[in-house]
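Sync notes, pocket subgroup
Present: LS, DG
LS reminded everyone that the earlier model was apo-only. Rerun requested with magnesium ion included. Inputs:
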Amino acid sequence: MDDAASEATADPKRSLHFIEQIVEDDLASGKFGGRVHTRFPPEPNGYLHIGHAKSICLNFGLAQKYGGKCNLRFDDTNPLAEDTEYVDSIRESVRWLGFEWDEEHYASDYFDRLYDWAVELIKKGSAYVCDLSPEQIREYRGGWDRPGKNSPTRDRSVTENLDLFERMRSGEFAEGTRTLRAKIDMTSPNMNLRDPILYRILKAHHHRTGDKWKIYPTYDYAHGQSDSIEKITHSICTLEFEDHRPLYDWCLEAIGLYHPQQIEFARLNLTHTVMSKRRLLELVREKLVAGWDDPRMPTLEGIRRRGYTPESLRAFCERIGVSKYNSQHDMVWLEDALREHLNKIAQRRLAALRPIKVTLTNYPEGKTEQFDANNNPEDPNSGTRKLTFGRELYIDADDFLEEPPKGFFRLKPGGEVRLRFAYVITCDEVVMNAAGEIVELRCTYDPESHSGGANAGRKVKGTIHWVHALTAVDAEVRLYDHLLSIESLGDVPEGEDWRKFINPESLKILKGAKLEPSLSSARPEDRFQFERTGYFCLDKDSRDGALVFNRAVSLRDSWAKMQKKG
Ligand code: ATP
Ligand code: MG
């Protein structure tokens, strides 16, 4: 476990993190006239993932905490990868996390203004049209250990630059033949300041502006100006943009615009999963998962389908904190946040995931009884429900062993166990089929062992869960586990195929689970604790009479134990 996580606490009196400290200093000095205005700026080229959740919680959280505003801005400056499908999904995911934006904007809405500012930069002698090809530009840029060289067209006249830039815009030139570059310093130790590209020719259809534009601004040129247009105060981004900040500042100064403050923080990395867009795309395209919302995916749609609650994600983001140091958080922190929340809110149910039939030979045929079962001992308002009990039951295969080791307190031949909310039973006979598989346990029950009975206090070592056979409903249960079998792909060499680290046990499907009948009215995204087993969420693949439950998380972290054993 790492430092950021161990200092974590949901305590509202926790000390300020460094960005809150900057905001409070700015509020005190009146730097932005007492305003706080942040934005969350996704590029609509993919689905949001848990890493984005950290940025969302941070940006929207600051606005909430300081009575400010937060915009949702689609940073759609690269038409090749962007799509309205992603815009819709992003909106939905931000809302699901529990946030509502003050304004919705698109960088593409600023294309006209950005173009006009580029013309201004040309007129000021601060930008020029460069005729180098992409390979030449790379070559001329130099390296971190050697200065770059000026482009041969760097000193074109303003008139010629204006003419060429206009013709780039009207589509006269082929892609890759010209760019508009800022005239800064080809010898700067900061590579981002070696005459960065502001515009490139791209004859691509844009999801909002259609075929209007033949040139598109780069991220570095569009981002700060978009922040400025929206009067953002604190423009928060991840650490890899630290070296871009001088360029962010340069553009705003050179054009002479209102100047937000860029602040960088460490991105969220989690163990046992992948977050790079490229790898997520490979998983989906190669059908290694069922889609973007596969419950193993770290996408917000996947996490949601798995059974995560927005509250647990927000608690997790709060706990891991905000810092300037890159680190990796153990998935256990995320899972614990979910367990903690579901323990409070999820109703308890009984389910036999791998059922074994139990017949109580001394229980009258045709008789049933109703027992009261507590819905959630953690929630006094959750009430009780009735459980039907009868002669034929199912228990979980995990709760019976023919030849148990010492200290096994569940059911064994000749052993006894208490059935939750019901009676003590004794196992008299194990019935096998020709293949040697257990088909039935023949047991007897102690009629006086129920609460109120003469033997109610009878001490038995174990209590197990059960389902009444005649009224049970069938379900498919999908047991999900970590996507990766190793903690991180960080040490996997470039050329090696990362796919071999996909956990082969990341999904196990159990077809014949038996559940207590009250679960038949569950709706997709309803979450329950299956007692002694884990937290489960009804999947959207469910149909009437064919329930599908996803395991969101087991009751305890069994992974650490398994790894040790293995
Ligand atoms: P791309 O590689 O396409 O740029 P990205 O992960 O940066 O992908 P964006 O859509 O540009 O995706 O991200 C939107 C916002 O979310 C940015 O401000 C980015 O810094 C932030 N963000 C992305 N990934 C993480 C992460 N792992 N942790 C924290 N913030 C993140
Ligand atoms: Mg990005």
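DG: The first helix runs from residue 3 to 6.
LS: The chain is about 25% helix and 25% strand.
Action: DG to write up.
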